[in-house]
Amino acid sequence: MIQSSYLIDLLSTITQRNRSGARLDDKRSARALCDLLLTDLGDVSFSKVSRALLAKYREMSGADKRVFFDMLAHDFDIDAETLAQLATNYANSRDPKTLAALTACAEPPRQELLRRLNRVAGATADLVAMRCDLLAMIKDAPHLAVIDQDFLHLFRSWFNQGFLVLRRINWDSPASILEKIIEYEAVHAIDSWDDLRRRLLPDDRRCYAYFHPAMPDEPLIFVEVALTDGIANNIQAVLAEDRPALAPEKINTAVFYSISNCQKGLRGISFGNSLIKQVVEDLKTALPQLTTFVTLSPIPGFRRWAEQVLPTLSEAESAKLAQAMAEAEDGKADDTLRGYVARYLISEKHKRGGPLDPVARFHLGNGALIHDIHIGADRSTNGLRQSCGAMVNYLYDLAQIDPNIERHSASGTVAHTRPLATLLKSHAAKTQS
Length: 433
Hints:
Blueprint: H1 6-20, H2 30-37, H3 43-58, H4 62-75, H5 80-93, H6 96-105, H7 109-117, H8 123-138, H9 145-158, E1 165-168, H10 175-184, H11 193-200, E2 205-211, E3 221-228, H12 235-238, E4 253-261, H13 272-286, E5 292-295, H14 302-309, H15 315-329, H16 335-346, H17 358-365, E6 369-374, H18 381-387, E7 391-395, H19 401-411, H20 418-432
Parallel strand pairs: 4-5
Antiparallel strand pairs: 1-2, 2-3, 3-4, 6-7
Helix pairs in contact: 2-3, 5-6, 7-9, 8-9, 16-20
């Protein structure tokens, strides 16, 4: 059920007031403030020190932030030798006091530092931004990844589903939120306010977002939904400027056509699964006539994979696939290309397990099945660049979600329809002949 925005608005006011009161007037070093924060301070002093450290971090240059993270990684790490001795002692004694000491020692002091920083209003957003900075540095400084483990541990607790608030985004939502929907849209770019209006204002369109009470003005993830008569097979038709709104009595299908994560600093924290389930429940309550819940999804890795496959094919098959890829850009459907898309989605596996395609991993892991593949379904520049214009429907059959999840988790089964199984079999026969 969608929750009232009153509490969110109130928390937003409090958060902004507290953040605006943070002043960079403490002359102590970041290291000194970190040490002080891990001591027993009174509430007033604790709040002042936390705000001073967060304000000091916000003012740091990139180089200074790197020095700060190096300090956290080295000076606020676990005491490995003491931890090893405690582990040995506990293995020999099974003493509860030794276990308590072992557990305390196993947590790096920097994790408690982050936890204490988060006690002041507005700090959660600062810490999410801090992790964003950290992630940008890890590639060149892999030793900093130990700090990311602390962020992940804490964020998975702080951002669990029990704390998330589902809000419907519509044309009457605050302009600051609408601006962020435009900014964060990651699948199908929103080109203008008119474009946004077409996605929010008609009765046959919906948009939902998750918010966290500690970040009331920042959507965490949002999904855009088209309410249609039948399963959509072309994104340009869904987003068409001159599209007439569908009469309520003709609506029978909810098409999830865009899911966008908004916070880079929350990478690795999963919201999509619970978001889809909660939106489905809300839509079922509001529109009992809905019988079908399906996506119209991009296939972001297909072209890259197809280009890697080309040199491995026979000369005739390589020429055939290259021609099919070129013709798809001109809007010509081709079963050759559909066959390769089916192979990519169903048969190709990631080195760490699961489907090779990241969107497929997400939806199949959530219990969906691959329903159909559409060539020429996305003629945008991005669609042609990523997938030669192909798109896919993932069907959420409510009665089959749990069995699909179990089979996918246990054996890696990629649930798909019989027509796609036939297509894949035919494709294999043609490429092997």
